[in-house]
Predict the 3D structure of the following.
Amino acid sequence: MFPTDPDVLVIGAGCAGIAAARELAARGRRCIVLEGGPRVGGRAFTDATGLGLPFDHGASWLHEANDNPLTPIARTLGVELTDHDAIRDRRLFAFGRFATAAERRSFADAEDAFWTAIDAAAHDGAPDRPAAEAAPRKGVWDAAVAHWEGAQICAAELSLMSLHDFAATALEGPNLVTPGGIGGLVARLATGLPVRLGARVDRLRWGARGVTAEGTFGAVTARSAIVTVSTGVLAADAIAFDPPLPVPTREAIHALPLGLLTKIGFRADHPAAPDLPAFAVVRRAASAEEDRPMSWVSRLFGQPSLIAFCGGARAWEIAGDAAAAAEAARQEAAMVYGSRAAAALARPVVTRWAEDPLFRGAYSHARPGGQGARRELARPLADGRLCFAGEACHPRFAATVAGAWLSGVEAARSVP
C-alpha cells in the first residue's frame, strides 16, 4: 500500500490532502499521505457515537453546490443530497419572542442592505480595511446581521476581517446536506489511498533536491511535498521547516488566522424538548453590538437533534471548557424555548477544534490588508518542490471543503 520511493509526500489527510492524493494517483504519481491523527477527514468529521446519530463536528454543507466540485462526486457515489435552503424553516427570535412575518421580512431587507453596502465598499477603489467599517450600523437589525454574517458564519467578528477578502469569499446557495454527514462523504473519498495514520510531521526539510519529513514515525523522503495542515498549525510553528519558509509565505500564514465555530449538539427526543420542525433554523437577534447570541439548527432529516452554533470571540472564551459551552448553550435554549424545554435537552457533545493541536481553530479569515494572502500561500516554492493547500489557500471557496478540495487538486498539478 505504501510506496517505498514516493514521488510526493502529502502532509495531512483532510479534504485537501485527500484531493491531492487522488489527483496524484490519477496522474500516475506515487505518494504517501502522512496524517498526524487517528482518522482521515480533517475538519470534515462526522461522528455517530456521541449523539447516537450522524453529527458533523466541522463542515456541514456543500456550499454553492452548483459550482462545488464535491457535488458531482457525491452524486456519482449515490450520496443523498438535500437542498437545505429549499426546505429550511427560518425563524427569528427578537424582543423576547419569535418575530412576526413582517419582522422577518424587515430582517431579510436588512441582510440585503448589508450585502449591498459590503459589495459597494469592496469596489470603491479605497484601500482594504476591516469589513465592519463598511457594515450598516444604525438600523434596528444591523447588529444582528453583522453578528450573523461575521461571528456565526465566518467564525470571526467583522472587525477582524479584510473587507476585500470577505466580499470575495461570500458564498451563495444552494447549500446541500446529506444524512451521512459531509465528514462521512470526505472520509469515503479517502478509501484506497496510501494514508499513514498517527504520523505527525514535526520537521520538513525541503529544497531543490527534494524533501524529507521527520517525526516519531521516522523519516520519509520524496521529490516534493504538499502541506495541507491548517494555518493555525503553521502559525504555531508545529512543523519546523528547514530552511525556514520565505518571508512572504510566513506573512501569508499569519495574515490568515483561524476563527472558531463551536457546535454544541443535543439529543432532543424528550417530549418536553423544543417543538421544532425538521430542518428549522433559529436565530436570536443580537440586541446590541456586545450581545453575541448563538443560532440553532434542528432535527436534520427528522433526527432528534438540536445543534447550537457559537462563533467568534464568544467561542474562543469558552474554548477548552466543554461544561461551560454546554451551560451557555442551555442558557441560550432557555432564553429562546423556555427553561422546561432547555432542561429536557440531553447531555450534549461539544466540538473541540480550538484545543486540538492538529487544528487549533475552525477555518480561516483574512486580516485587514491580507486580501492577497490566500494566493501567496498557494504559490509553489522551490519550483513546486513544496506546495501548500487547504481551505485557506483558495481565494473564492475559502473556509469550505470545496476550497480545500480545489486547492489540493491544484497543488497536485503544481509538483514536478
Observations:
- The mean pLDDT is 97.
- Residues 82-174+261-350 form a domain with the Polyamine Oxidase; Chain A, domain 2 fold (CATH 3.90.660).
- The chain has two domains: 8-48+178-257+365-414, 82-174+261-350.
- Residues 101-122 form the longest helix (22 residues).
